[in-house]
Specification:
alpha/beta; 3 helices; transcription; nucleus; transcription regulation; GRAS domain-containing protein
Length: about 110
């Protein structure tokens, strides 16, 4: 939840920026992003927010992450936020150069504190 608050506060400082990319290294069930999607929806200034979430994992074929992406995608559509959810499978930090590019806006990295 603290990450959501930081994202919202930062985007308030840049009102013309409605696009950002979150890279999450420990997404869990993704429930933290449901609140973020609702907050972004309530704050729209004529343009829908565009959010890209990349879940980084070291597990090939993680069905749980596909489910997380489906749930977040359905909720984003319901509240009017454009969401692109991707999974990046990596076993070494150098693979982060494979992060999807082409989206201008803000990049937010999320790490677990455990």
């Amino acid at each position: 939840m603290a990450a959501n608050l930081a994202i919202l506060e930062t985007t308030l400082d840049q009102p013309s920026s409605n696009k950002f990319h979150v890279v999450d290294f420990d997404i869990g069930q993704g429930g933290q992003y449901l609140n973020l999607l609702h907050a972004l929806s309530a704050r729209q200034n004529g343009k829908p927010a565009v959010v890209k979430i990349t879940a980084v994992t070291d597990k090939e074929g993680d069905e749980r992450l596909r489910y997380v992406g489906d749930v977040l995608g359905q909720e984003a559509k319901r509240v009017g936020v454009c969401l692109k959810f991707t999974v990046l499978v990596t076993h070494k930090p150098g693979d982060l150069s494979r992060l999807p590019s082409g989206m201008r806006g803000m990049l937010v990295m999320c790490f677990s504190d455990s």
